Automatic annotation (TrEMBL):
One of its GO terms (molecular function) is beta-glucosidase activity. The keyword Hydrolase applies. Keywords: Carbohydrate metabolism, Cellulose degradation, Glycosidase, Hydrolase, Polysaccharide degradation. The active site is at 199 (proton donor), 389 (nucleophile). Pfam families: Glyco_hydro_1. GO terms for biological process: cellulose catabolic process. It comes from Telmatobacter sp. DSM 110680. Belongs to the glycosyl hydrolase 1 family. Its EC number is 3.2.1.21. InterPro entries: GH (IPR017853), GH_1_N_CS (IPR033132), Glyco_hydro_1 (IPR001360), Glyco_hydro_1_beta-glucosidase (IPR017736), TAT_signal (IPR006311). The lineage of its organism: Bacteria, Pseudomonadati, Acidobacteriota, Terriglobia, Terriglobales. One of its GO terms (cellular component) is cytosol. It catalyses: Hydrolysis of terminal, non-reducing beta-D-glucosyl residues with release of beta-D-glucose. Gene3D superfamilies: Glycosidases (3.20.20.80). This is Beta-glucosidase.
Length: 483
């Protein structure tokens, strides 16, 4: 018997299929007729990109900026990949006009950026650094001059190192509110969309429980729960401060990487199980924020480790928001069962596909369920929703011809935007999408080893080069559809 390879077998099957269908007259679309897989987004849907201050700005000591906990952490041996820091990053502090042109060339209408707290208040409180505020005023002016609307995040993890105790201290929540009040009072005539915080779990649990992020501590359950409380309190006080100091009509929200739980199958029982799980796994953050109270099950589970709450805290935490930003990358899966909680979480097999970052598991349906679960559970509490981050790392290589052929990123984006279109078409109030990220940058503890950008950055020369994914996203924006 002759042994043939899988490749040879595949060729023979393809040849047989071609012969079989050669004589058939298959239906064809008329020239120019829209293909059914061209998924149109609604007119006015907002397309954008996102970055964060410490990841792109550099200028760590420029013009009076004070150190943040990430400056301290990244300069501590062994904390980041190869000891890399955000001292220079993409040097967007000096090259921001070039970066605005990258945005303009993509055709985006919006840009999500963050403000470095310690660039405005070098120690977190007290004396204002006018040069720092002036920098952000120039960036906003440049965006507006190019018809790009800024969506500004007040805090993207770079806590001023001068704040004693960091997020262990309740005073940091109050200092954050003062910072929000000052910045929005002075930039509120130009910026109409503000986000308070970005991804609670990353600057609380990863910073104070796991030790993987700044400040690199490993505390017990009680102190960590109190830190979590101070974080969501900061958000609530920040919302109040922005509303009190920005012009009428200003939109206020936050960007949260709520844990996405997808049903293993789309049956009523599994969908209900996934929504129960969504409430539970997001208990310390989004659930409490949108409910305006801690779930009884969460408090019972934590017992004496539950956070201590003062008068007025929950009213602030539950402040109404104009929109919710969700950062969505990966799914978890739940199935219905006969337990008291009504669900079980499915373990991820080792064979589950992932992108260049091992944690970035490939489940594009997460972006649909991330939207649907939140909107179905909290309904009128979420009047509008934005995807404030979605994207992927890739093992990008600049070819001798000066190109980056990141077909894996294009695949990832096409699949996620197809799933997002499903949510939009079903009437969920998704208003826009911010792709992470505009360009390769400092990827926190991974340093410069993981590239998430649409533009390849040579970190020695700082030259930006558009990748294949930038071409694809530009076409998507121009056509307002996914193909």
């Amino acid at each position: 018997m002759k042994v043939i390879s899988r490749r040879q077998f595949g060729k023979s099957v393809a040849a047989a299929a071609a012969a079989t269908y050669a004589g058939l007259s298959l239906p064809r679309l008329a020239l120019g007729e829209p293909h059914p897989m061209r998924l149109e987004y609604p007119k006015g849907f907002l397309w954008g990109c996102a970055t964060a201050a410490y990841q792109v700005e550099g200028g760590a000591q420029a013009d009076g900026r004070g150190p943040s906990l990430w400056d301290v952490f990244s300069h501590t041996p062994g904390k980041t990949h190869n000891g890399e820091t955000g001292d220079v990053a993409d040097d967007s502090y000096h090259l921001y006009k070039d970066d605005v042109q990258l945005l303009k060339n993509l055709g985006v209408g919006t840009y999500r950026m963050s403000i470095s707290w310690s660039r405005v208040f070098p120690t977190g409180t007290g004396q204002v650094n006018q040069k720092g505020l002036d920098y952000y005023s120039r960036v906003v002016d440049e965006l507006l001059a190019n018809n790009i609307t800024p969506y500004v995040t007040m805090f993207h993890w770079d806590t001023p190192a001068g704040l004693q105790g960091g997020w262990q201290s309740r005073d940091t929540s109050k200092a954050f509110a003062d910072y929000c009040a000052y910045v929005t009072k002075h930039l509120g005539d130009k910026v109409k969309h503000w986000m308070t915080t970005n991804e609670f779990i990353c600057f609380t649990d990863l910073g104070y429980k796991e030790g993987q992020f700044a400040p690199g501590m490993k505390l017990g359950a009680g102190p960590v729960n109190q830190i979590r409380h101070h974080a969501i309190l900061a958000h609530g006080l920040g919302v109040q401060a922005i509303r009190a100091n920005a012009p009428s009509g200003t939109q206020v929200g936050l960007a949260e990487n709520a844990i996405v739980v997808a049903p293993v199958m789309e049956t009523d029982e599994h969908i209900e199980a996934a929504q129960k799980a969504t409430r539970d796994v997001n208990a310390p953050f989004l659930t409490t924020l949108l409910d305006g109270k801690y779930p009884e099950s969460y408090l019972a589970h934590e017992g004496t480790n539950a956070p201590k709450v003062e008068d007025g805290d929950m009213k602030a935490i539950g402040s109404a928001i104009d929109f919710l930003g969700v950062n969505i990358y990966v799914p978890l899966y739940a199935r219905a069962d006969g337990s008291a909680q009504g669900y079980a979480m499915e373990p991820m097999p080792t064979s589950f596909p992932h992108m260049a970052s091992p944690w970035l598991q490939l489940g594009p349906e997460c972006i649909y369920w991330g939207v649907r679960n939140v909107c179905d559970i909290w309904k009128d509490k979420v009047p509008a929703i934005f995807i404030t981050e979605n994207g992927t790392s890739s093992d990008d290589v600049l070819t001798p011809a000066g190109r980056v052929e990141d077909v894996d990123r294009v695949m990832y984006l096409r699949n996620h935007l197809t799933q997002l279109h499903r949510a939009v078409s079903e009437g969920y109030p998704v208003k826009g999408y911010f792709l992470w990220s505009l360009m390769d940058n400092f990827e926190w503890a991974d340093g410069y080893s993981k590239r998430f950008g649409l533009h390849y950055v040579d970190f020695k020369t700082l030259k930006r080069t558009p990748k294949l994914s930038a071409e694809w996203y530009k076409q998507t924006i121009a056509n307002n559809r996914v193909e």
